[in-house]
């Protein structure tokens, strides 16, 4: 059973993560990459996860897909998807869960296409493997998919190297939504692309989302892009969420100093030139406390003590 | 030959109060052309990466060079840094034609006047040496080390200038964060007391929260030491934040240049408008207009009209890159005549130079979007 049909339209959260903890085990010590993180994503909601490299945001995405391999280990917490416990799924259940219920687009997704297979064959593969359609029916659907992301269906016969970076990325997005998943995870989907192409791809994702009604977990470090696209967002630092609220609220009034630093990293394009201050090199936050509600729907970790601040 | 170090803070204090940009250019590039040989050994085919670039940077001024990947911004920087040999054109540093003076490679004198800061602070510092080594080496090579005591003072001073503590001189690069490493790279450039610094995407590999710190440092160096900079970036917002003037590059040629705020508020060239409209902006409601986007793309490649057509003072030309003045002359804002089309080869070569990211640039003959959009609009 796929959850996409049953849960659509309800107010139930599609994805519920509670106190998720992921550790990377080493010989002598282990590192906690994700530390007691909780959030939920509603149906048709775009949820943004912001943070810098190493903050654990991609680890969360991989944990949801159950893609973590040794030495990473889910040390605690739960991931529930449409009422099912993802962490308790068996291999067969998991195979269906991936791609059919949750699909993921990676940062370098455009390079993840198989260079010796045509785009068409790769999409047909998805349909024949996961949905059991005939080859003819799969090809027809593949053409429809490419049209959905505004690529000429004639390109089904093209090899990946014959397409531009932007087209490849859109083809990958088309493949991700092929089986109408109810959750799409986008891990920095446009970092390698120029702004013009980036904007068009993000618009495309938003349009697809409106059309197909799936939920999105959107991971990036670009706060401007995130605020523009997401409904709700969370900011991560050192494996913990330091602030979560509606995207517009965080943009208007970031409360945590780290969120403020991230916001300040993107100077505005209009208005007078205001001096901004980022986070000083070497500033570290530690012992990030649990979130507290600052105003309705706006949760923030109480202000931590600054350590290692430079003179 | 070098200015005594102690004299610097005094002049710095004067300059911060009311920063006046010296009218004389520190660095001038005239008609710079760079062709890359392509094809086999006997092939005469060439790719034109730069098609005659004219750019001037005055003393104590930061000019940002923006454009998409493959537009030739880094090639221009590499030519100016003499890492590539330009095919034609002149590079003037304080009025001296450096291509004539040092014909084959950059002289040490040139290196002490112009320094580069690279994109990747992880790759530009040798991991087996301590920070002290990089700075000492620069100072010694350029004869600025002096006595051991002077060297020590100079090292401490350099570290403080870039916002690091002198005790970090004993650290290895891997012990520092990306932002700190980029500061070391800047300190190394500063060690030779250059007049011009070329910064090629200095913040794009750093964590976002420390980027603004590096930009502030560059601004501080301009204000306090009067160093001129060419800041190469694809990020319009940071260019606006840091630079006095912005020059927009497309297919190896400049299409528009002007005072930063004015240029981004009133972009005149369709390519600049395209770039500005694509910058993520949280304040914007809704998405871009696909028809407008298609029109802009068409205008970049094959403009049928120019906004200055009919203005008797500003002649239009489809064959020469005529510069039209935009708005108040104080802003020094000009735009290349829209009618001018870069030689088709130049544009398409600029694409093939970096097929991966840039193949789908606005100038590709009808991309699939514009095609669908055209269909929709017709």
List keywords for this structure.
heterodimer; A: 311 residues; alpha/beta; 8-stranded mixed β-sheet; 4-stranded antiparallel β-sheet; 12 strands; 33% helix; globular; disordered N terminus; disordered C terminus; B: 378 residues; Rossmann fold; 19% strand
General description of the model:
- The complex is a heterodimer of chains A (311) and B (378).
- Chain A has 311 residues and is of the alpha/beta class.
- The longest helix of chain A is centred in the middle third of the chain and has 18 residues, at 195-212.
- In chain A, the strands form 2 sheets. Chain A has an 8-stranded mixed β-sheet, sandwiched between helices.
- Chain A has 10 helices and 12 strands.
- In chain A, a hairpin with a 2-residue loop joins strand 9 (232-237) and strand 10.
- In chain B, a hairpin with a 2-residue loop joins strand 9 (245-250) and strand 10.
- In chain B, helix 5 (131-141) packs parallel to helix 7 (178-191), helix 11 (270-278) runs antiparallel to helix 12 (290-301) and helix 12 (290-301) crosses helix 15.
- Chain B is built from 15 helices and 12 strands.
- Chain B has helices at 8-17, 73-80, 98-101, 108-113, 131-141, 148-161, 178-191, 208-225, 236-242, 260-265, 270-278, 290-301, 344-353, 355-358, 368-377, and strands spanning 25-37, 46-58, 62-66, 88-93, 96-97, 114-117, 196-200, 228-233, 245-250, 253-259, 323-325, 334-336.
- Chain B is of the alpha/beta class and 378 residues long.
- Chain B has a domain at 5-235 and 242-254: P-loop containing nucleotide triphosphate hydrolases (Rossmann fold), CATH 3.40.50.300.
- Mean pLDDT of chain B is 80; it is low at 1-18 and 345-378.
- Chain B has an 8-stranded mixed β-sheet, sandwiched between helices. Chain B has a 4-stranded antiparallel β-sheet with strand order 2-1-4-5.
- The chains are: A alpha/beta (311), B alpha/beta (378).
